Amino acid sequence: MENEYRFNHKHILGLEDLSRTDIEFILNTADSFKEISTRPIKKVPTLRGKTVIHLFFEPSTRTRLSFEIAAKRMSADTFNISASTSSAQKGETLVDTAMNLAAMNPDIIVIRHSSSGSPRLLANHIGASVINAGDGTHEHPSQGLLDLMTVKENKGRIDGLKIAIIGDISHSRVAHSDIIGFSKMGAEVCVCGPSTMLPVGIEELGAKVCGSREEVVEGADVVMALRIQKERQTDPLIPSLREYATFFGVSKKVVQLARPDALIMHPGPINRGVEMDPDIADGSRSVILDQVTNGVAVRMALLYLIMGREGNE
Amino acid sequence: MNEQSKSLLLKNGRIIDPLNKMDEQADVLIADGKIERIIPAGTGNDLSGQNLPSFDLAGKWVLPGLIDMHVHLREPGEEYKETVVSGTRAAAAGGFTAVACMPNTQPVNDCQSVTQLILAKAGQGFARVYPVGAISKNSEGTELAEFGEMKEAGVVALSDDGRPVANSQLLRRALEYSANHNLLLISHSEEMSLSENGAMNEGVLSTRLGLNGIPHPAEEIMIYRDMALANYVKRPIHIAHISTRESVSLIRRAKAKGWPVTAETTPHYFTLTEEAVGQYNTRAKMNPPLRTDDDVKAIKEGLRDGTIDAIATDHAPHSTLEKDVEFDQAANGIIGLETAVSLTLALVRKGVLTPEKMIELLSIHPARILDVTGGSLTIGATADVTVIDPEMEFIYSTDKIVSKSKNSPFIDWQLKGKAVMTIVGGRVMFQEG
Predict the structure, then answer these.
(1) Which of the ends of chain B has fewer CB neighbours closer than 10 A, N or C?
(2) What is the ipTM of this complex?
(3) Hey, are the CB atoms on A118 and B326 less than 8 Å from each other?
(4) How many helices (H) and strands (E) does chain B have?
(5) B147-157 confidence digits (pLDDT tens)
(6) B344 and B358 Cβ atoms separated by less than 8 Å
């Protein structure tokens, strides 16, 4: 099948840079790695001797742990640097930090940063591969890929599905990667949220904007709610969380409009009772924990493919 | 300015002097820093007993000195980016005989002593320097700065450029009080509550890049407020660096009603679109941000039909410290003194502007708006002269940049048309090659 195809990306900065074939190849690779995590000895020697640095300028529990577990299960040596302990507090620039890390010859740097585009800035200055673990409101490609994997695994396909995404599309890098990824794979992506949370020109990324929660969920194969960030106080986006829950929360009644076999997803962490009813989050259609499990497999696949690409040794 | 001859002969150039309705090949004799005579081409050599430095300018344009009414020289306070001397050297290299420098230095030019310091430094410079004083103390937008004292020290206009005067009452009072000292207000028009935290023009591209957008009404709302207040108190206002279609339209309508408004744009707003941001290129980050193709078209139309009075560069030097960082953290602004002539000539070649119109925008109008010397080659006038080779092609490479800073989106562009000689008060301050 992949006779001609070679995965040849040095960096994973966003799903925008990946072709449909690239994405399919990553998902297939991730699928084959999934089994490793169910073994009694969850470790393969594939990346032995490789160094992976996790450079996190924003707090993260799940994504960082997921990357770290992925790297360790591939036998890579991993190191963590978090913003609170980094030189950023002392005024060192990102480029300086990058150059210093590069001088220690890491193979891969996984970066999370609040500034959109910072992974690319890093990639422009160092020889190592860069994986974007979330940059500002730009992209979160590994999350997008694990969402694709979860849907494909449960539905058998992505092409032709209706994906409903509800919430703060403007400030969600997950939504951006999902919109790009799902539409690239042939799904119809429909978004809905308070108009204050829909960015200008989102249609150009491949999303159809729906006027109401009911319209977006109608006949959907996947219903995804996004986290409403309580900490966003300065910009008056919504009157109250309560009003948000009333008009945009994913409730049992809303879910009934979706297809009977629709999947419920959330990139986490959930504000229960705000963007999603607890019953729905914990219900039988919820694949929220599958998302987490698949995150490890997708990240193992990314590490493996980047290191194994053509021209790299 | 360095001591050298203030007399010279410019031979065989095409003299374009719209105020004197002149466009012909001629010789220009400059004596003792003034335009002495303009005589038929080739006859300059016959001037008896003159042993003058002379320059054969066949094929070149000889113009009234160009005036950039909006630059940042960074001195005092940020001399690592630019100084009065380095900035005026860049100005001369770009064909400008004079620049008006904005007050957002450190400290802000909001009092006599800062103005005096800038003018003292200008004595060693390569172009005339017209300091612009602050409207409010420390440009904080709360109290009026000392207009009268600054005027006595030499400021030619007032602005809080870099930030808007957010408080409308303060702007009203500034407009009123500026009458007592006959000073023009230059407005940086921006509604900060809309633009704050924005990193580029708001649109599909800002969404795609995940950058906070600056919606174009942030500029237009304030332009309207500024013009309405100026008209209300019957004081002139000059709108700096306009970038949007609606801004052009608002100013066009205000002028039609006779409101006392003038406006400038910059070469980047008629040359580039937001696409120049590409993949987070901080050299394309400025405020106001680069806009869309539609805006660029409107800006060109505004230049053509006279809605926009002047082309200024908003020359804003920054070092790699401010630019080689995350896009949203990067400083706003680009250098522009050394590319303005080439980029404006591109509009002349495209037929958007005539050479005369170009001279109006870069010399006649800035002189008139700021009420400073220049704008013509009238006999007896101070000899501020710019010589342009409209055909000269060059690559604008980093190593050729004269400014101390290199933050230009035009680096490595193939450009056509260049200033080859800049004469200030009869002294050659720059000569190509």
Answers:
(1) C
(2) 0.91
(3) yes
(4) 14, 18
(5) 999 999 999 99
(6) yes
How would residue B161 be classed by pLDDT, with cut points 50, 70 and 90? very high
pLDDT of residue B369: 98
Closest-CA distance of chain A to residue B203, Å: 5
Disruptive mutation site among A138, A178, A180, A183 for chain B (greatest number of B CBs within 10 Å): A138
CA distance linking residue A106 with residue A52, whole number of Å:
6
User: Is B281 an interface residue toward A (CB < 8 Å)?
Assistant: no
Crossing angle for the helix pair B245-256 and B217-233, nearest 10 degrees? Answer: 20
Interface of A with B in 247-306 (CB under 8 A): none
* Residues of A carrying an active site annotation: 62-63, 90, 112, 140
In whole angstroms, what is the distance from residue B225 CA to residue B188 CA?
12
CB contact under 8 A, B324 and A93: yes
Region B164-172 average pLDDT? 97
Residue A86, pLDDT > 80, answer no
Distance separating alpha carbons of residues A140 and A62, to the nearest angstrom: 13
A positions 203-222 inside 8 Å of B (CB): 204-205
Residues of B in contact with A116 (CB under 8 A): 209-211, 280, 327-328
Distance CA A136, CA B209 (A): 9
The string of DSSP codes covering A200-269 is TTGGGGTEEE-SSHHHHHTT-SEEEEPPP-TT--SS---S-HHHHHHHH-B-HHHHTTS-TT-EEE--S-
Cα A27 versus chain centre, distance: 13
Upper half-sphere CA count for residue B109 (Cβ side, 13 Å): 33
* Rounded distance between C-alpha atoms, residue A105 and residue A128, angstroms: 7
List the single range of A241-245, B61-65, B81-85, B101-105 with lowest mean pLDDT. A241-245
pLDDT confidence bin for B3, thresholds 50/70/90: very low
> Does residue A233 register a pLDDT over 60?
no
Q: Do A95 and B208 touch (CB under 8 A)?
A: no
Helices (H), chain A: 20-33, 62-73, 94-102, 118-125, 141-155, 173-184, 213-217, 241-248, 252-255, 278-281, 288-307
B324 touches chain A (CB under 8 A): yes
What's residue B4's pLDDT? 60
Q: Which of A57, A137, A180, A209 to mutate to test the interface with B (most CBs of B within 10 A)?
A: A137
Query: B253-305, pLDDT tens digit by residue?
Result: 999 999 999 999 999 999 999 999 999 999 999 999 999 999 999 999 999 99
